[in-house]
Amino acid sequence: MTTDVLGASIKRVEDPRFITGKGRYLDDIKLPGMTYMSILRSPYAHANIRSIDTAAARAMPGVVTVLTGADVPYNPLPMAWPAGGSSGVQNNVNTPRALATDDVKWTGEGVAAVIAETPEQAVDALDAIVVDWEPLPTVVDAEKAVQPGAPQLHENAPNNVVFEWTVGDKAGTDAAVEAAEVVVRQRIVNQRLIPNPMEVRGDIGLYNPGTEEYTVWMSSQTPHIQRLLLTAFVTGIPEHKVRCISPDVGGAFGTKIFCYADMALVMLASKLIGGRPVKWVETRRESYGSTIHGRDHITYLEIAGSRDGVISGLRVKTYANLGGRLSTIGPGIPTTLYGRVLAGCYKIPNVYCEVTGVYTNTTFVDAYRGAGRPEATYVVERAMDLFADEIGMDPAEIRRKNFLTPDQFPYDNPSGLGTAVNGEKIYIDSGNYEPALDQALATVGYDGMDRAKAEARSRGKYLGVGLSTYIEVCGVAPSKWIGAVGEGWGAAMWESANLKVHLTGKVILTMGTQPQGQGHETTFSQIIASELGLAMDDIIVQHSDTQGTPFGYGSYGSRTATVGGTAAVLVAGKIREKARRYAAHMLEAAVDDIEVEGNEYRVKGSPDQKKTLQEIAFALDLGFSLPAGMEPYLDETVYHDTPNCTWPFGTHVAVVEIDEETGVVDLKRYVAVDDVGKKINPMIVDGQLHGGIVQGVGQALWEGAVYDDDGQLLSGTMLDYALPRASWLPPLELGETITPSPVNPLGVKGVGEAGAIASTAAVANAVIDALSPFGIRHLDMPLTAPKIWDAIHGKEARS
Amino acid sequence: MIPAAFAYARPTSLADALEQLAPSGAGASGGGVKVLSGGQSLIPLLRLRLASADKLVDIGGLSELRNIRELPDGGLGIGATVTYREVLDSALATARAPLLALAISGIGDVQVRNRGTLGGSIAHADPASDLPAIALALDATLAVRSGNGERTVAAADFFQGAFATALGEGELLTEIRIPAQPAGTGMAYRRLEQRASGYSIVGVAAVVARSGGSVTRARVAITGVGDVAYRAAGVESALVGSAGDADAIAAAAAHAVDGVTVASDIHAGAEYRAEMARVHTRRAIEAALAAGD
């Protein structure tokens, strides 16, 4: 009856409240007796704190209390994912404290907090805090920071090195590079980005002096994990004494995965002031300096192969800038999620990657949409173009020539996630890359691009076309693999779902995942409606509160549909099976004789003998008549661990036109053919792709965090940090191939990050292609008009 | 993003506003009185605490400043609190000075254009905003009132530096007066947008007339390049008397930054900015001549 609900572009059930201003975000929460916290941020990128005088601030109107690092009895924030996990790689760990005590390592690190009766009074009192600073030399560039003589940030990190991590076969790759007919080398920079969720971060802490329990509201992707980290690792407060709640979250892009100092501070502050609630909401400017940044790699790549375009080796050295101290899983991003997927969708027999994690006097860096995989895709996709250019081969042809082919799956990438650790390995389980490439090339009219280039030249423009044939790893990961290698959170990565069918027939699905605007309530309702034959209106999806939802690891890494969605399918199956057994009881039939269609449970061969799920739920809830051994009530919970990651892939093609006189890039067309498996709601999938693509285009063309040598963030507001605007973009032309994931019953693979992973390289390759008549084979992003103009200025274009 | 505390007054008459702004007035303390118009520049600066004020005098309630009128001499008068949107919607304004619509339609976004005022932008004198170039190219005169009465200041004398104008203490910009343009005048605006802020890296306003095969009059004003918008005298003098053909335009545009100290920042270095001034000057003149023919 409603089986077609799965796969339908149903309008999002969340949107009426979101688009009419009725969402309930962190800052919408008003509690009686609320106080407001504001944090004094370091104006220096590197300095010792000689003293902090808060006396004048304490005397300011409305100030309830002022905290400094000396008032905070907590541990530093946790390091949940050191490079190499449990493999023994040395990590020289320094994480932030709730408030800095002795020194600061970047502009924006918190050094004191004012709690006041109003937000205005809290901000005003910050100006009255006197800090005696001893400024220290700074370094902001990761490659410079590891050089001898560079300013040193931490005693336990000589040369500012956080870790040295490698993956792959060094000897084999060295030999392959040595023996190759052609080797192309290039230094490339994947610039630092500032994530910009529409809703900034914030928290409210509420201590109950009677029960000694805490409630923490947080704009977070991971309330269950934050409870664990804040209690067991930071505060020492017992885990069961803390409740974490994420209300509606207005975007995150990874920034809200992590454990932040402010979370611990609002808890402490509420306790110290006798249990009044303490709210903190960052300003946008504060967000730019104190919430995590993304990317920031300097990479030396070498790609080796034959004159006929067979790639034999990829050797990569990367300096990953992790900031002044480490964010929660900062080291995991440029290692596991980068080095292990560097080979992309290609059968490259020899891959070796060295990553040096580096401290600099900059904001900490962690997972930002795509998290390591955009950086890896950028490396291998630029490398393929560089190699193709060197040997005079078409970029589409070299990709086709080196693709993994369908008969090669499951593929045990020698440098990839399949690398055996303690006997556990995971592998690329499926894929079929050529059809996506073919479709994308046909859509864009690839064969006609030479004519289009000539036509553009006649108008003083340079047209370029760029490809990105990407693969990503999503739905990370089987817990047994995590357990073997100690990566990820260093903990399991399963998901949970609880489903209750109430007496009235209304259904509540409770998830351990955490939406941030992706439409989970719609998607999960579609799954349950399809599985149980219910109307969408009869289902509500709850989430986001550690009290009342089963433990879940939260939403990031494109894992919610694959892992959480599977939990939803399975829990519906458990409900269906219990309903079937009870239907047999009600209908006085054998369980094996009950067949289910939609919401009807019928006796085979006697179609009039039937009960609806609602009738079954009613009777089971009353419990007047129960078969032996059956509990009343339809209430089931599933904890699901995935057997493997998922492997979305696709081909993106960008067409750009460059104005020679100004260097301005006009993105003319954007074609994306993605294979994200089956789609629960194609409209939501398209929306995820749209957003991701645009974020990636933003990196290619406009976005970039800029520090001066003193560690001041010059791109410190939206006046200086260029986010993409709709009017700068062409309509996005989306195509699809569908290769269902074999590891979950929905056949889904995850789509949250695909666009951002693929699009940066496609646009960058298009720009470089457009500039090839000038002999340019690489420019670093963002490919702004002045940068392009500088590169071509005074040069004559080849015809 | 919370500004420091300030007093706030919303006068309902011009006389009351001038009283509030008077140096001896209630809010006087070291120049801490600021005029609030549409708030599209001042409020963000206050919120970022890059600006502060002891008192804001909100002139948004002064209905006498919110009209667009035809002046007795045939010119156009735009009250200081007229919004961008109201100019775009005004048949009188867009017919008399097409440059206004050409330039204003690219300012900010819908909300900014609904709230922001021409007078506010001119009085703020941001070196990257478009209005100063427009005022210069249209030979605008700015009416200024204080307790001592009205005086008028030519746009060329009004803009004195970055965020610095001829407005004295206690003075309020009340009207922008744009003279009637000669028949056959063409206008164009060309700008290169700073992608983050939406302000102009370079903005060029061209108001030109051609008659009998030669350029008879040229006003070329440039914003974003230096610390103040300016009339490009070298461009204008090279252009006037020429045929206004492609070579003449290019030759004239080459003088776009003559004598100007060109700014450099993270969005555009000086060499690039200077070249963009020349390119956009050329393009603006080409378009203006085409529009006038």
Number of helices of chain A: 20
Binned strand content of chain B: 25-35%
Unreliable segments of 5+ consecutive residues of chain A:
none
Oligomer: heterodimer
Per DSSP E runs of 2 or more residues, the count of β-strands of chain A stands at 26
Question: Roughly how many Å is the radius of gyration of chain A?
Answer: 27 Å
**Spatial strand order of the main sheet of chain B:** 4-5-10-6-7
General form of chain A: globular
**Please, how many helices of chain B?**
12
> Could you tell me the mean pLDDT of chain A?
95
How would you summarize the topology of this molecule?
The complex is a heterodimer of chains A (799) and B (293).
Chain A (H helix, E strand, L loop, with lengths): L14 H5 L15 E7 L5 E7 L1 H4 L4 E6 L34 E2 L5 E7 L2 H8 L3 E6 L6 H4 L15 E8 L1 H10 L2 E12 L8 E7 L4 E6 L4 H13 L6 E4 L15 H12 L5 E4 L2 H7 L3 E12 L5 E13 L12 H4 L10 E10 L13 H19 L3 H8 L30 H12 L4 H9 L3 E11 L7 H7 L9 E7 L5 E5 L8 H13 L6 E4 L17 H28 L6 E4 L2 E4 L2 E7 H10 L11 E7 L8 E11 L5 E11 L6 H20 L30 E5 L17 H18 L13 H8 L7
Parallel strand pairs in A: 1-12, 10-11, 14-15, 18-19, 25-26
Antiparallel strand pairs in A: 1-5, 2-4, 2-6, 3-5, 7-15, 8-13, 9-10, 9-12, 13-14, 16-24, 17-18, 17-23, 20-21, 21-22, 24-25
Chain B lengths: L6 E3 L4 H8 L11 E4 L5 H6 L7 E4 L9 E3 L5 E4 L4 H5 L2 H6 L1 H7 L5 H6 L2 H7 L6 H7 L3 E6 L2 E6 H4 E3 L2 E2 L6 E7 L6 E9 L6 E12 L2 E10 L6 E2 L1 H7 L6 H8 L16 H23 L1
Parallel strand pairs in B: 1-3, 2-3
Antiparallel strand pairs in B: 4-5, 5-10, 6-7, 6-10, 8-9, 11-12, 12-13, 13-14
Helix pairs in contact in B: 10-11, 11-12
